[in-house]
Amino acid sequence: MSLEKLNNEIIQCRKCPRLVEWREEVARVKRKAYKDEEYWGKPVPGFGDPRARVLVVGLAPGAHGSNRTGRQFTGDASGGSLFPALHRAGFANQAEVKSRSDGLILKDMYITASGRCAPPDNKPSPVELNNCQPYLEREIQIIQPKVIVCLGRIAFERILKINSLRNSVYKFAHGASYQLQNKVWVLCSYHPSQQNTLTGKLTVQMFDQIWKKARDLINENI
Q1: pLDDT in tens, 172-216
Q2: What does DSSP say about strands 109-113 and 177-179: parallel, antiparallel, or unpaired?
Q3: Is 9 exposed, middle or buried (0-12, 13-18, 19+ CB in 10 A)?
Q4: What is the C-alpha to C-alpha distance for residues 123 and 140, in angstroms, rounded to an integer?
Q5: Which end of the chain is more exposed for a tag (fewer CB within 10 A), N or C?
Q6: How far apart are CA 170 and CA 162, in angstroms?
Q7: DSSP reduced 3-state for 113
Q8: Model's pTM, two decimal places?
């Protein structure tokens, strides 16, 4: 299956009634600042370089970010930290992102998420994440990345689950990296949410080190 076919399937997904109701209500009611915009209001597919060696896995779309723009990490504060870092590291052609038509191009990177629909309170349930997991599994099969960067504990635990690994052995910590039996590297980072960036839990320097390490891990696999 191609990424294009997979993404078309993702966009049409209605497996989780709670998420379908929430994402569509948010798209209908809108935030006042975006009242004149047409919200995406559907599951958000992955995007980027189909031949990427680095796969980035986030949590789920933000209600007024990706659920509005239709592209991962686009239109919210998390993306405001992520894309400047990717630009500095040479993975993105620009630092500022606003919409699916802003000209952003990712180089050697594909960005996806553990959950594809905006969840209430940014908390998808375990059942909802399980419903989404086959999409992530198929992305990994198609792309065959050398490095998987997990933005946050939930993304890390989802990758462990896909690989039938126990989190009693593999521990989440910012900057931690593990090489799996299939030679793929998994690299952990705190999620670039405001909860982490505004409190200093994740600094610009700490985030830049993640992308430098991702490049180093790519080179180890050549």
Answers
A1: 999 999 999 889 999 999 999 999 999 999 999 999 999 999 999
A2: unpaired
A3: middle
A4: 23
A5: C
A6: 13
A7: strand
A8: 0.96
